[in-house]
Amino acid sequence: MILRDEDLQRYFDEDLAPDHARRTEEALASSDEDRKRIAALGQIRTLLRASAQQTAADAPSDAMWAAIGAELAKRGGPGWLERLGVRFRELLVGPARIWVPAAAAAAALLLAFLLRPEVRQVAAHDVVIESVETDGVTATVFQMPDDTGGDGISVLWITPEQGGEE
Amino acid sequence: MRAAVTLAMMFSAAAFADGTRVHCTVRSVHALKTEGGIDAKLEPLRHILNKDPFSQYKTFRLLEQQERDLQVKIAAEFPLVNGKKLSVTFLERLTDDKGRTRLRFALAYPDLNAQQKVGDGATIPLVVGEHKGGILLLATTCKTQ
Question: Is residue A166 predicted with pLDDT exceeding 60?
Answer without folding.
Answer: no
